[in-house]
Amino acid sequence: MNLKALITLHFNQLSPELQRAAEYALQNSSQLVVVSMRTFALSAGFKPATFMRLAQRLGYQGWGELKQALIEELGLHDDTYVAKARKLVDQGKTSSLYSEMITAHESNLLRTHDENQRQMQHAVDLLEAAAHTYICGYRASFPVAWSLFYVYRLFNRKVTLIDGLASDSEIYSREFTAEDCLLIASFAPYSRESLQMLQAAQSAGSKIIALTDSPLSPLAQAADCVLLFSTDSPSFFPSIVAGLSISECLMAMLVARHGTEAVTKIENAERYLKTSGAYVPPGKS
C-alpha cells in the first residue's frame, strides 16, 4: 500500500497534530525524499519526533523506512538504467523477454484503464475550456507530448508544443495566463525542465493536466487533473506504452466532444496532407 493510501486509511485515528504532519508530508513528498527528517520537520514547523511518531503510526519502524518506501514508490531508488541493463545481460533470457515485455504492457494498460476512468472526462473539460493549450514532455516523456500535440493540432489551432529546442521554453512559459492549460507529461526521474514549466504554470494561474506515474509525483501534487500511467517494464528503460494510450484516448474523446466541427477540420488537414505531397499516394513510392 502506498503512502497516500496508508495516510487515508489511518487518518481519522491520528491526532490533530499528526493529521497536519501527514497532510504536509503528502503535499511535499518531493522534498521529503531528499532532505533529513530534522530539516523536513523544521520546514513544516514541527518537531522531528512528530514525524517519527507519524511513521510508526502508519506501520513503519521509523522515518527512514517510510522515506525509503516513498523513494521506491516514486521510482527514485538506485535501480538505475545501467543496473537494469546489466541484469538483463546477466540473466541472458532473450527467449522469454519478448513475452515478458508484452505481458508488462498489458498489465500497465489495465492499471492505467482502472485509474483514469473518472479523470479522463475532467481532462477533456479542462482542455475544452482553455483559451490555449500548451503541451510539454522532456526527454523520455517527449514521445507522449509529441503524440498529443500532433493529433490535437489536426482539429485545434490553439495548441502549442513546448519542445525545449535551443532551451527556448521561457518563450512559451512567459505567455501563460489563467485562461490557458498546460498538458504536461513526466515520470520518474522527473526532469528539471518539466518542474520549471510546472512552476511557471502555477504562477500564471493556468490549469494543469499532468500525465505522470504516481499520485505523489511533483506533477500530480500541483495538477488540477491527474492522469496516471504505469511505466513498469522488464527492460532497462521505463515503458511509455500506457502513457501513449492515455494520449490516444484523450484525443478520441476530444474529437467526439467537438463533433462535426472537429470532423471538418480533420478533413481539411487530411486533404492538405494529400495535395501537398506529404502523403504518398497508394501504389507510388
UniProtKB/TrEMBL annotation:
Organism domain of life: Bacteria
Entry-linked InterPro entries: Homeodomain-like_sf (IPR009057), HTH_RpiR (IPR000281), RpiR-like (IPR047640), RpiR-like_SIS (IPR035472), SIS_dom (IPR001347), SIS_dom_sf (IPR046348), WH-like_DNA-bd_sf (IPR036388)
A Pfam family: SIS
PROSITE patterns per UniProt: HTH_RPIR, SIS
Keywords: DNA-binding, Transcription, Transcription regulation
Coiled coil feature spans: none
Record domain SIS: where: 123-260
Keyword field contains Nucleus: no
UniProt xrefs under SUPFAM superfamilies: Homeodomain-like, SIS domain
Gene3D superfamilies on file: Glucose-6-phosphate isomerase like protein, domain 1, Winged helix-like DNA-binding domain superfamily/Winged helix DNA-binding domain
Protein name: MurR/RpiR family transcriptional regulator
